[in-house]
Amino acid sequence: MTSIATSTSASASTGEAVVAEAHGEHADLRLFGLATFLVADGMTFAGFFAAYLTFRAVNPLPAGSTYELELLLPSINTVLLLVSSYTFHRSGRNLLLGRMGPCRAWLLLTAGLGAAFLAGQMVEYFSLPFGLTDNLFASTFYALTGFHGLHVTLGVICILLVWVQTRQGGRVSSGAPFGLEAAELYWHFVDGIWVILYGILYLL
Amino acid sequence: MPIPSALVTLLVGMALVLSGLWVGYNVNVLPLDASANAPVYDALFRVLFSIGTILFVGIVGLVLFSLVRFRRRAGDITDGQAIEGNLLLEIVWTAIPAIVVLFVGLYSYDIYERMGGMSSLNDHAAMHRMAPTETETMEASVGAGSAVSAPAARVWGGIGVAADDVNVLPVEVTAMQFAFIFHYPDGDITSGELHVPNGRPVELRMKANDVIHAFWVPQFRIKQDVIPGQPTVLTFTPTKSGSYPIVCAELCGPYHGGMRSTVVVHEPDAYDAWFEKNSPLAATVASASLTPTA
Amino acid sequence: MTVASPNDFQESLQPQGWLRYFSFSLDHKVIGLQYLVTGFIFYFIGGALAGVIRAELASPISDFVGRETYNEVLTLHGTVMIFLWIVPVVNGGFGNYLIPFYVGARDMAFPRLNAVAFWMIPPAGILLIGSYFITGSAQSGWTAYPPLSITTPALGQVVWIVSVLLLGGSSIFGGINFIATILKLRRPGLKLMQLPMYCWAMLGTSILVVLSTPVLAGTLLLLSFDIVAHTGFFNPAMGGNVVVYQHLFWFYSHPAVYIMVLPAFGLVSEILPIHSRKPLFGYTTMVYSIMAIVVLGLVVWAHHMFTSGTPPWMRLFFTIATSFIAVPTGIKFFNWLATLWGGKLALNSAMLFSCAFIVNFVFGGITGVALAQVPFDIHVHDTYFVVGHFHYIVYGGTVFVIFASIYHWYPKFTGRMLNEDLGRLHFLLTFIGFNLCFAPQHWLGLNGMPRRVAEYDPSFTTLNQISSVGALLMAISSLPFLYNVLVSAFRGRVAGDNPWNALTPEWLTSSPPPVENWVGEAPLVEHPYGYGVPEDTLSVAAATGRDLWSGAGRR
Lengths: 204, 294, 555
Ligand code: HEA
Ligand code: HEA
Ligand code: CUA
Ligand SMILES: [Cu+2]
What we know:
The structure holds three protein chains of three kinds. By secondary structure, chain B is α/β, with parallel strands linked by helices. Chain B contains six helices and eleven strands. The longest helix of chain B has 33 residues, at 37-69. The longest helix of chain C is centred in the first third of the chain and has 37 residues, at 67-103. Chains in contact: A-B, A-C, B-C.
């Protein structure tokens, strides 16, 4: 768990610079690995989406079990998440430029937006007239949003961890941006999933 | 490459094809054919069997020939020839299997159509129905209010009846752990065995009470899953009288292996006798079953 | 973390000697062997379970074990054999051992992830098998179709789900590692189209793993909700749809069959050229056909559901798509035949098992293409014909290749040769036993014997008994193998670095290899199959591994 010891600032680009020369050392592939993992994770969601769409297309609910989904809250949530992607991006830019202050501020803001999203989700859950086991739609709704919410929760925790590590002397710095870059990639992914989810669950 | 001369190859190839065809058409590995689509099925089987034999024997022959002819002799430490590929050969052995599988696929599609597999079930429109998108707020009850019939009446799959066939004997099949129950709506007969008249198409309307089962009569070459919540149909026309096993072919619990029954194919007279003896409504319906109405 | 050299760990933290095989080692060779040995342990467990199945089926009535036990046994057999034997061994085992050599790297891209992936397997396996003794294990088959899997005892099924999730996770981590290693960790100067074929096979396999395994994970999560939280995804009583489960399950489990066989294809592609002293025929088309199998493999899943009430157009599409897999697969087989043709074939155990693989797999492939035809499948679906089909492929195909690979790479693993006479005996018994066991099952299926039954029509008794005798022969055949593998590690003839005079990079180092694979720089192997290449003046017999990598021979 050693970080690349470097104090040089802005000019050092990302991990690509560290090319394999000595024994067993090689370029930092962790982001590549994470991206591959996110493809896999995306397939889990794809499976859920496919299940939901099929259920929806072929399994009519019994009469009398209609529910209206409020659009307002999820729409606000969507905006929150989209904005948080932007704030995270700002944080990442600042890190690479070596401006740790703004970097950490944007990071906190992102975490705050994520938490706000989760709060919104909770409010929605408690205001819904149906529970997990009421019917097929209800179950699928909670499974989809819940699985996504789990991802957001994980993301917020990661952001906070990164925030701790970007402190003076922490593990994440402009020379060793991996932690933040990984969290950012993950966050954008979770965001993208939400947009699809919002589309098929609320708009369709 | 020391390819045997073209003539030898040709002769061996012809012998291979002929023996493959011989095997396909003379080695009988199938049970008795007792329904109208069994001979159709058997025709497909013979084609597949022939092609399979030709391919398999040919490839085994090549492997054995190579192992004997090209085996390394004691003391020989040299390499074989450095042949890395041959475009023509690659094209040939891509094209031939492609043609074969295309032919087989189309042929089996034809067979399937002749078995009635492509006749449309009532759900065709529903399957392709686009999900409704009307208002901004979503209606969670998907499909409610649209033109779909009640879920119970919808048929989800199986082999249906040809549209012009009116002479069909309908039988309702209920599968449960671990038995098939047959109900004849015409005569209100309930039975644990399936009795059918020879030569008349039978439509099984199947539903399951608990888990998935499958209705299979090997001598009829037909099988259909019986799925809880998703009624299916299966149509067949028996052609040889006798009794044949009905086998449950989907794991459905500990007694899955014991979930068997019998289908008895009677000559039409004998069937009517059976019908009359068993039906509480026999007097009124017996004649109806002789001269079926639409 | 990955930037640091594995050497550091090896020399400081890691246990040395035999102890390291029981540790959280980061050395890809140790992990590879850990996978292999663990896999073989589970193979014998799964084989013993198969023994119980065949003992029960020796008589037409349910007598040897109870009916519920029978279902537990067959579920465990299928799950163990697939998730704890074939997949970990051909992917994790040989993959971890060979891939770093083949790309000219000193370890995998993520050594720690690699160790984590391996160490997920023993707990999952113990959980799965332990459930039999503690709560009773799952009894709904390895496919776990609801509603049966919802209505059978919940605890066993949940344990089954948890352990399959763990194994799936392990497989995903492994896949990520292979993709990164093959694409990103190649020695400078080594081009993609110069990689040994096994790398391509593992790349294709890993793509399938990454794309399809997560869908299984999601599906099993939903299934566990149905069992534990009483949701109704797959419960028709609550408006759920059982067929959706089947679609999702087979979206993974059909690609899974290529996850089980593509690596085997890769291994054979390494073994055949070396023992026939000829280049691998048609390298480029081999690569393309692997990729074609990957793509096609993702869109054929519903051929397992021809009787499940799928709409007609779907059946038609999946028939054609499935049949077409025969084309790229056929290309590979014809290329192997052409590799053999005109070579100098050594009839050793590795070669015998490889050639038998060709024969068995072609048989299983042909029955597979037959099964792909809807009308044909409607008759034989869920019968012993299907059991025959897939054992011809998974056993006659993949397991035969695993044995071939053991005979081929054992000298590299241990520095000692296996005994050839015992090897040939092992081959003969396995080949006879295997065919005796599984060939009759095709006839049984065609004539009316469904699968997953503990009792059957007495008219099928004789063939079932033949089949059971075949299984017994297979069990016996593992005795010479076990003896050979265990004893040769100490008493076997010393192999030298490159007993086969091979050109692929793993042979261009000592046997067993040093911790970081090569003492000096990794060799640049541009022609992994350059046997008999004219410009080669070096007598193959005279070259040892060290000569080759130090540049005395080929580049
Ligand atoms: C490693 C595992 C593996 C592999 C590689 C395959 C390969 C194939 N399988 Fe198999 N299969 C299984 C494992 C595997 N299968 C398992 C485990 C099951 C049962 C699951 C369960 O229900 O429990 C199953 C079930 C199964 C079914 C469902 C049967 C049923 O339940 O009703 C079908 C149907 O289409 C099928 C088809 C095929 C086909 C077409 C191939 C093709 O890929 C084969 C292609 C290869 C060849 C064809 C041979 C070489 C080619 C040539 C020499 C060229 C010339 C050939 C021709 C022109 C035909 N398989
Ligand atoms: C993937 C790999 C794989 C492998 C290698 C095998 C190997 C074997 N299988 Fe397996 N099998 C499956 C995968 C596999 N199977 C799957 C997926 C199913 C479907 C499950 C389901 O329906 O859900 C299945 C189902 C299945 C059935 C059908 C059960 C049923 O439907 O009712 C049968 C029946 O004969 C069978 C037999 C065998 C035999 C005899 C072997 C032999 O080749 C095994 C040989 C090995 C040994 C025998 C071990 C070595 C010896 C010892 C350890 C000594 C002790 C042994 C004894 C005392 C006998 N298998
Ligand atoms: Cu009913 Cu098996
Ligand atoms: Cu398949």
